[in-house]
Structure formats: structure tokens, C-alpha cells
Amino acid sequence: MQIEFPASRPSGDYALVIPALGSNRPAAAALSAANVDAALRAQRFDGDSGSTAEVFADDGGTVRRIVFVGAGGGSTPPEAAEKIGGGAIAKLLTSGETHVVIDLSGLNFDADAAARVALSASLRAWRYDRYRTKLKDKQKPTVAKVTIVGGGEGAKARWDDRWSAVAEGASLTRELVTEPANIIYPETFVERVRAAAEGTGLEVEALDGAAMAKLGMGALLGVAQGSVRDARLLVLRWNGGAEGETPVAFVGKGVTFDTGGISIKPAAGMEAMKWDMGGAGGVAGAMLALAKRKAKANIVAICGLVENMPDGNAQRPGDVVTSMSGQTIEVINTDAEGRLVLADAITYVQRTYKPKTIIDFATLTGAILISLGHEYAGLFSPDDGLANKLTKAGATSGDKLWRMPLGEPFDRLIDSPIADMKNVGPREGGSITAAQFIKRFVDDGVAWAHVDMAGKAWADKASDTYDKGATGFAVRLLDQFVADNLER
Ligand code: BES
Ligand code: MN
Ligand code: ZN
Q1: What is 181-486's CATH topology?
Q2: E-strand spans in 60-109?
Q3: Which residues are annotated as catalytic?
């Protein structure tokens, strides 16, 4: 989608979008007011967040489709920006209109807020029609261009330098998350990321199963051993910061399909487990965004990529595996596989890059959905400073986090009679014991945070920035975290 920020409204054919912050809709002033006001009243349009109304009215001699998008009276410019861009596209994407002009005049949006209108429009327009060969014309997107006028000076620069990169990163994430598991598996995940990273300066490397076996990654490889797809450890490096400065590490769970293994999942809904690589997808998309916008920070990202399958060679409940850290794990439940993957990925990044900060992302537990639903991802960290920074970045970016507890009494629940630990605790507090498990692999002195995003990678209902499906979670969060904390 083409995005432009000219100084004033263009001429020609387009649909005009007029934002309404409650009853405040300054761009409507230029229209022949009487009949427009009557039409809005007839549709009971009040400018509330999420409301829209449509009129066909005379606009300087041509009859034009005019869409009013409500963003609520009390919203701040960044909040309103998200609702305006997303709301406009949700309404018009398949409307037949090819050009959409959004007029922000009179709303006092600065350059950043205006560019964020473009971001949410671009995010909301994303869809993946690769396998839909029989789409009717009426179902196909028509909007090819969005023009934003009336924002602060410098909106185009803000879009070019920051938000367009974030949109591209989120697209990669959503593509990886959306693709089925016969298409995206460890090897092809790496290939997709490599292709996207081409020419950006993002360094891409990958270890295969044999290389990981040499390193002693028994926890990750135990999960992979039931699959005919070889595992991969994807390493992405972005060095935009001070030379030689140790990188911050991001780690993602990349289970390209999670059947549960021998502790097999019920059939109903199992297809959702194609997106059990949402953490890895989010981290990879964030790295692409950071590279594309040339972030002034050093970052290394590790994606632990495996497929969890039941098979004659699959690991069994009760098996004991030795992780790269040397710690042994009794695998009580082969469906608690994400933590096994993360354990070795975290040890690898610590041994190789000595990061002082590690943030991991994983669609780790169904229990986090019971706790937080689909509104927040769960944030676990013993480090108050890091937790606060992430919570703040979550609130600013829209990828919201809610902090959960950790503690010794939870840790005791994963002691094993035969090994150093077991991979599951009791049902109660399942997201917390999962986090405690990961914590056992984090070295002393490392600031660590874990984000359980099982409720956030995929959405069953549309929002301002996505339609049903892959959300792109973690891309905006990490971009914001880096901007706020590492680029000063
Ligand atoms: N990938 C699942 C978690 C999940 C569930 C993600 C629902 C998204 C939606 C994870 O590997 C898993 O199976 N977790 C188990 C852990 C249990 C066996 C301790 C779970 O949550 O049931
Ligand atoms: Mn599982
Ligand atoms: Zn899983």
C-alpha cells in the first residue's frame, strides 16, 4: 500500500475519511454542513471509539464518499491515530475505493501521531490471500493508496524513519504465524527470514540439529526428535549500536507445530498449534523492523525452531534429558515443550554473547489465557526495572503486558525425584511454574523477562490494527522498548 503525506487534499477521485473525536470533527467544517449533519444524526453517529458513518455528499463540485471514523472524545493523539487509520481501512479496504484520503486538519496531531495513522492503516490492511484462489472480486482489497493530510510537519519523515519499518516487521511476523505447518517448519522459517533480511544488514545464521547435538542441547532436541523436520536455532544479529557493546538478547519459542507429542493434544482446535511459533515470529519481525529503521542498538535474537510430533522416535513421558546447561530434566509431559526449547536457546545465547538482558517470548501456556484472556500477555521478571520498562513499552505500543508473580514456593513445585527438575508443576499456577522453569536457566546477574503471549499471537476477532488472525504481537513492543531504553 502506497502512503503519502502531501500538504493539502489532492484532487480527483477518492474516499474522504473525516476523523471524529467525539463531537469534534473539524475537517467536516468545509462540507455543506446541513445535509451531512442530518445524515450523521440519522445514523446516530456520535464519534465514539469504533463508530463509523458514511455519507455521499458534495465536496467542491464532485459527489464523494465520505466516511466518518469515531475515535472517542477523550483519546490522546496516539490512541486516536490507531483508531482512525485502522477504522478507515476496516471500513474501506474492500469497498471498491482505490484511494483513501484521511484529513486530520484541526486535530492538532503532531508528525508522529499523523505517521501513526499510516501505521495503523497499513497494519489493518494486512491480509494473506495466497491460498484463496476463488476469491470473488467483491472480497478483494481495493485500496492501494492512503493519503494523510493535516498532520504536523515531518509526518513523512516519521513514517519513513520509524513506522514503515515497524509495519514491515509486523508483516513478516504475521506471514510466518499464518502459514500452515506444512509450509513453515524450522528450515523454511529460516529461509523466509533470510529472504526478508536480504539487503537490510541484519545478520542471519542458523544451526542445524547436528550442530546443536554437538553443543549438548538435549532439551531442545528431545522435543524435535519425534519429527522428520530437522530442528534449527536461528541467530539474528543487528549491530547498530556502539561497537563492541554487548547486545541485548531476545529469545523466541518457535514450535512450528505443537501436537503435544506423545502427551498428545485433543483433536478439536489442534490446527491452532501452527502458530505455536508466535514468539519466534514476533522476535524475527522485530529484528527486521529494527534493521530496516537502522536502530542504534546492538541486539541478538535467538529463535528455537522445532516441530513437536508423536512418533516411534518421539520422547516419552518420564524420559530424562540433559540440557546444554548441564541441568537434567524429567519430561513428565511432552506437551510442555516450549520451556525445553527456551532452556537451551537461553543457555546458548548466554554462552555465546554474554548479554546482560534477556527477554523471551513464547506462546507457552494455556493457563495464561485463563488468567489474562486475550487483552494482555503475561510478563514475568524478577527485575523490577526491566519489568517496568517493558510494561511501559507495552502501554505505549499497544502490545499490552500484565505482570505476574514469581517466587521460591512456585519454584519448589518443579523439583523432580529423579532429575534436577521436571517440566511441569501442578495445574494451578501453570504459567508461573513454566516461568520458574525458564528462570532456572538464566545466569545470575542477567536481567531476564519472560512474556507468555499464548493469548496474543492470534485473534479470533478483529481490532484496530489487525483483522482476525495473526496479530504481529511483540514487534511494536520490542521496537518501543529499544527506542525508549537502548537508543539514547
Ligand atoms: N503451545 C502450548 C500452549 C498454548 C495453548 C498456546 C493454547 C496457545 C494456545 C504449550 O506448548 C502447551 O501445550 N502447554 C501446556 C502445558 C501443560 C502440559 C503443563 C498447556 O498449557 O496445557
Ligand atoms: Mn505444548
Ligand atoms: Zn507449545
Answers
A1: Aminopeptidase (3.40.630)
A2: 62-70, 99-103
A3: 265, 339
